[in-house]
């Protein structure tokens, strides 16, 4: 197992190498990094992913979960689900390979007096390590009675269940299972059932040391595939369409056996493309021509952790060696917006507070921007503090009121618009998104960030 973790960490090293053509320009912005290709990164075969994934799960269950249950004052946490209707949090809790909550699967996390957590199952099919089977086999009625007997024997004062009005990921207990649970529990224990929504959000948003070690490698792969797509290896100006590039990205990830969590999106802008201050997203599809700027948005998941990345490219005209000065200045403005946003990450601040200060400082700097950043982790759009929405640049109730914790990951996502002199001062829309983590003091990009245009020759 250890040699596989070391392999993953070793493969992060290519991320530290800047492309020589981009070093000088990157110096003006911190953490700029050029990644040339996904071929520079090892991707473990499906079978070899199981050991590191399960090692990281065990680390989370043994080190993180006890802290979070104390933090949320829960003595017991129940995750109850049925095959084909799994709780959203279920697959973050069970060892691989696991394809479903077979029949009815019951996970019971019981906090002991010494602070450790008993990890128990009440299932027809035992899960194995790191879980201990408290009951197995028998009928469904016997299974429910075994769960009730186990709860009574442990006598928890607070029992967390996954019901939530506001957080979809914490609302995985179906109505039928909720009703059955109350039917089998003695009356005295029914009043001890409380929503576990805060625990679920904290479990999903908090990253461990090992996860933060491997995350840069995952983001590097995503950025590497984007670099391949935004190059002459894929694009023939005048022939290739934006849809062709999107499908290259999808098929390249498939070739690497990496699932995407949404279809890659590619658009183009050029002089004459409609784009004004109030346009939510400027861009269109079609045949890519020289002089176009391109944008993509991609997201993959690997070793259970997900990415979300947006980058920009320029298709050189035949007499050009670099992007026009106006476009380079616009990307630099986008980088300045990123710097403004990440400096407002302060432990304990809410997403709404971060958004408000970012907007004020960007406006004072004369930047026309939109901010809509979100947490990353087991989901691409993960729970945690929402920092603006693309269609709501005001406060977001509940999710925007969630406070910022250390050792959490985010998509630093948003855009700027800027007039381009070479386009008769038409606005260009620079849409950026880079994966990063907050260590409690600083936002650190997991695989650097784009500070130079991808150039298609």
Automatic annotation (TrEMBL):
Q: What is the lineage of its organism?
A: Bacteria, Pseudomonadati, Pseudomonadota, Gammaproteobacteria, Alteromonadales
InterPro entries the record matches: Creatinase/aminopeptidase-like, Pept_M24
Q: Which residues form a coiled coil?
A: none
Identify the stretch annotated as signal peptide in this record.
Answer: 1-24
User: What terms describe the molecular function in GO for this protein?
Assistant: aminopeptidase activity
Q: Where is the Peptidase M24 domain?
A: 233-416
Q: What is this protein called?
A: Xaa-Pro aminopeptidase family enzyme
The answer to whether the entry has keyword Acetylation is no
Keywords of this protein's UniProt record, alphabetized? Aminopeptidase, Hydrolase, Protease, Signal
């Amino acid at each position: 197992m250890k040699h596989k973790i070391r392999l993953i960490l070793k493969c992060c090293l290519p991320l530290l190498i800047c492309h020589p053509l981009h070093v000088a320009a990157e110096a003006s912005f911190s953490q700029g990094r050029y990644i040339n290709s996904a071929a520079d990164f090892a991707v473990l075969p499906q079978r070899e992913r199981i050991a590191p994934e399960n090692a990281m799960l065990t680390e989370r269950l043994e080190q993180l979960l006890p802290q979070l249950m104390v933090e949320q004052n829960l003595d017991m946490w129940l995750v109850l689900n049925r095959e084909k209707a799994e709780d959203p949090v279920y697959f973050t809790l069970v060892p691989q390979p696991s394809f479903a909550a077979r029949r009815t699967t019951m996970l019971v996390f019981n906090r002991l007096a010494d602070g450790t957590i008993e990890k128990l199952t009440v299932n027809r099919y035992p899960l194995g390590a790191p879980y201990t089977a408290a009951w197995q086999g028998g009928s469904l009625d016997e299974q429910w009675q075994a769960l009730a007997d186990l709860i009574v024997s442990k006598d928890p004062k607070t029992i967390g269940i996954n019901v939530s009005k506001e957080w979809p990921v914490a609302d995985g207990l179906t109505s039928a299972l909720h009703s059955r649970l109350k039917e089998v529990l003695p009356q005295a224990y029914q009043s001890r059932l409380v929503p576990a929504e805060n625990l679920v959000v904290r479990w999903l948003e908090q990253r461990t040391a090992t996860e933060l070690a491997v995350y840069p490698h995952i983001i590097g792969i995503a950025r590497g595939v984007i670099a391949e797509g935004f190059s002459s290896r894929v694009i023939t100006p005048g022939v290739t369409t934006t849809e062709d590039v999107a499908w290259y990205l999808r098929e390249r990830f498939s070739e690497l056996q990496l699932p995407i969590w949404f279809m890659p999106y590619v658009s183009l802008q050029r002089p004459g493309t409609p784009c004004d201050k109030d346009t939510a997203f400027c861009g269109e599809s079609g045949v890519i021509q020289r002089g176009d700027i391109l944008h993509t948005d991609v997201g993959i998941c690997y070793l259970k952790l997900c990415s979300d990345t947006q980058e920009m490219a320029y298709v050189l005209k035949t007499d050009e060696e670099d992007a026009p000065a106006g476009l380079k200045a616009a990307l630099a403005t986008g980088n300045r917006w990123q710097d403004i946003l990440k400096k407002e990450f302060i432990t304990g601040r809410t997403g709404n507070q971060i958004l408000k200060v970012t907007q004020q400082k960007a406006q004072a700097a004369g930047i026309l921007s939109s901010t809509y950043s979100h947490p990353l982790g087991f989901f691409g759009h993960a729970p945690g503090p929402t920092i603006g929405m693309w269609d709501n640049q005001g406060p977001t109730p509940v999710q925007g009121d969630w406070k910022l914790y250390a050792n959490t990951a985010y998509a630093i996502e948003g855009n700027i618009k800027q007039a381009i002199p070479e386009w008769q001062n038409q606005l260009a829309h620079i849409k950026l998104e880079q994966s990063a983590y907050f260590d409690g003091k600083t936002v650190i990009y997991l695989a650097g960030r784009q500070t130079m245009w991808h150039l298609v020759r």
